[in-house]
Write a structure and sequence with these properties.
Layout lengths: L3 H18 L6 E6 L2 H6 L1 H14 L5 E6 L11 E5 L3 E5 L4 H13 L14
Parallel strand pairs: 1-2
Antiparallel strand pairs: 1-3, 3-4
């Protein structure tokens, strides 16, 4: 049987995971393209990396959600990050390592990782 502390820890962990999907109060939105081409290009581990890194840093006001086709199959996995400061920034050819860097440098640090943006990968 679980103790009250164990149950509280489980609740907090699950609440954190649910908060990642709740866009209504999010100031920063991370949206990962999950159409067939995105999944084939490796979008699933990218979503996991974003979610894990956001939770690891205990970031509040950040949502991680999925969307269908963004329309640029050759640039998948594609991620759109929207922040109050920078508006929407589109990152392309993402990997889990790049996802972690985007969270740490763009979302936490406030500096767009320009080398991963669509403008630098045409």
């Amino acid at each position: 049987m679980k103790t009250l502390e164990d149950l509280q820890a489980i609740k907090e962990k699950l609440q954190g995971q649910m908060d990642l999907r709740n866009e209504s109060h999010a100031e920063t939105k991370i949206v990962v393209g999950m159409a067939t081409c995105g999944i084939a290009a490796g979008a699933r581990p990218v979503v996991t990396a974003f979610s894990d890194t956001v939770q690891e840093h205990k970031l509040h006001g950040v949502s991680v959600t999925l969307m269908g086709c963004i329309g640029l199959c050759s640039q998948e996995p594609i991620v759109e990050v929207t922040t109050p400061k920078d508006g929407k920034v589109t990152y392309v050819k993402m990997t889990p390592e790049k996802a972690k860097r985007v969270v740490e440098e763009h979302i936490i640090g406030g500096n767009v990782v320009t080398e991963y943006t669509i403008d630098n990968n045409k």
